[in-house]
Backbone:
């Protein structure tokens, strides 16, 4: 048996010995049983390289986010490192460059499965025997009437004397918005009697869908490579892949939410997921090479509502626009048009589910403990594409692009026509029953997965409503909404003027001039954290206490 003393006890003994205080036997042994071990126990040997220390610091920060007790404070915590926001790749639902499907699959870690036209999906609710034909016939007549009314109303709006002329994209969005709203009204009224879950859905019109996440496995920009090569301790890692931050912003025509979630339709084994992950394209180039733009903003995650507004936290169905595809050059070809629809379905579904996951305590750095599912429809009123999406993982940053065994799944159909045209007399021509049945199946898909609050939100310990301080509750709620608004700061980001770069940075020609600018004082504005600002001033009449000398500034409650 080896008699070993833990390192922390040896340090305690040494410090107490220096102080001259006598040490009792219990202080030396700290329990006889803990003093002897069957095998030698050595302290952990840590890798002290820069890359290893950076990975440990990132892991510690991710753990800090996980330990934050409330959803609102988690949303604030992610934004704490950047006062002026992050530099993000701008994803949205109105811009899909040429050949955008590979980068979309890489950035969302999604495997795409295309179904044959008219094929039925596996997870749809079974139709009720006897009443299905009668219900379908009743719905069919109402849907045709709704389509004819939508076209008449759209023409009526165009003929208004004060109506502004619309371009082709705006006109299609106007018509499709009316069609989607009318069909949603008809289907909810007709199917609610047979499918009780439709009585409980929350309908959002033109909701705000936003999501933020980090993607790894991207080639570093030239300025990063040049910066690392200029320092010996980083030059070996100059060409290592880096993470790119992505911010999605979208506004579908309409979305439906429910308090229960849809059942998963694909549960592959880990070995199968690993093989499927190899099918995901790797897009290592900068997203700007395809035409995506970058901007600076705070990380926002909004699934169409504020945290804990009600219990309808799971997406059931969303209707996306394809109006912008009218501006797509015909030289891209039909295949790229279909891939653009797939890319839109993937990123809109992934972003909506990711935002919902954030409201349940997960985020791009803290993995899901259960899958999330939703359904997506992309339409222009006449052509309809149907998709199912299953979110299994959120870890796409860093080495997870290679090591994460989980993948997300998307399956969908090619565009199908609901009708051929509306005749000059306002009648619907060549109505397609197959498309209507597919749409009915999506509404009839019953959210059947129910979990306890602890299972649904394992990383959420409390809610801000349980805090005793009203001032703290108000501060947290106000900060979350201010970050989500992405309003510019009242003081703009410091700028380096061209003459300063020429005469002060590139060439030291003004050595005798007083150094007052931020780059002369070795201050990096981008490193300013969210809590580095002057606190709100409290007027003397509103300060607590009889002397009113304390409490000149309001306290802050950043996580």
Residues:
């Amino acid at each position: 048996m080896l008699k070993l003393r833990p390192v922390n006890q040896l340090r305690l003994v040494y410090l107490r010995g220096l102080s001259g205080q006598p040490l009792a036997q219990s202080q030396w042994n700290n329990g006889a049983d803990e003093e002897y071990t069957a095998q030698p126990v050595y302290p952990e040997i840590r890798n002290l390289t820069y890359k290893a220390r950076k990975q440990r610091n990132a892991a510690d920060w991710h753990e800090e986010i996980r330990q934050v007790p409330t959803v609102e404070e988690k949303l604030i915590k992610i934004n704490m490192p950047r006062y002026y926001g992050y530099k993000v790749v701008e994803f949205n639902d109105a811009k899909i460059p040429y050949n955008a499907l590979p980068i979309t699959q890489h950035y969302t870690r999604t495997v795409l499965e295309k179904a044959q036209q008219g094929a039925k999906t596996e997870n749809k609710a079974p139709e009720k025997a006897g009443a299905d034909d009668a219900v379908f016939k009743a719905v069919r007549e109402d849907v045709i009437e709704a389509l004819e009314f939508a076209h008449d109303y759209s023409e009526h709006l165009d003929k208004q004397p004060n109506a502004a002329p619309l371009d082709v994209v705006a006109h299609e969005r106007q018509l499709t918005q009316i069609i989607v709203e009318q069909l949603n009204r008809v289907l909810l009224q007709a199917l609610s009697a047979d499918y009780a879950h439709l009585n409980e859905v929350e309908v959002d019109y033109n909701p705000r869908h936003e999501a933020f996440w980090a993607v790894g496995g991207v080639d570093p920009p030239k300025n990063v490579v040049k910066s690392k090569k200029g320092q010996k301790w980083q030059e070996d890692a100059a060409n290592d892949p880096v993470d790119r931050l992505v911010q999605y912003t979208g506004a579908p025509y309409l979305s439906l939410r429910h308090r229960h979630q849809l059942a998963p339709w694909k549960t592959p084994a880990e070995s199968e997921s690993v093989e499927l992950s190899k099918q995901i394209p790797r897009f290592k180039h900068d997203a700007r090479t395809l035409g995506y733009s970058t901007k600076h903003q705070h990380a926002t995650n909004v699934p169409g509502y504020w945290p804990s507004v009600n219990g309808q936290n799971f997406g059931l169905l969303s209707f996306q626009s394809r109006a912008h595809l009218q501006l797509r050059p015909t030289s891209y070809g039909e295949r790229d048009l279909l891939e653009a629809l797939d890319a839109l379905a993937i990123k809109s579904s992934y972003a909506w589910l990711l935002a919902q996951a954030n409201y349940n305590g997960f985020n791009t750095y803290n993995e899901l403990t259960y899958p999330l599912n939703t359904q997506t429809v992309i339409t222009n009123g006449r052509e309809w594409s149907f998709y199912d999406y299953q979110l299994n993982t959120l870890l796409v940053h860093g080495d997870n692009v290679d090591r994460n065994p989980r993948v997300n799944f998307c399956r969908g159909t090619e565009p199908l026509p609901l009708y051929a045209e509306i005749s000059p007399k306002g009648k619907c021509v060549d109505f397609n029953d197959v498309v209507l049945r597919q749409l009915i199946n999506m509404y009839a898909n019953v959210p059947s997965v129910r979990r306890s609050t602890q299972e649904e939100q394992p990383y959420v310990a409390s809610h801000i409503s349980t805090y005793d301080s009203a001032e703290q509750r108000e501060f947290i709620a106000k900060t979350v909404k201010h970050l989500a608004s992405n309003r510019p700061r009242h003081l703009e980001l410091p700028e380096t003027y061209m003459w300063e770069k020429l005469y002060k940075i590139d060439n030291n020609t003004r050595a005798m001039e007083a150094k007052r600018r931020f780059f002369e004082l070795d201050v990096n504005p981008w490193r300013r954290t969210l809590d580095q600002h002057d606190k709100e001033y409290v007027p003397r009449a509103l300060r607590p206490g009889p002397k009113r000398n304390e409490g000149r500034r309001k306290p802050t409650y950043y996580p």
About this structure: Residues 1-32, 117-131 have pLDDT under 50 and may be disordered.
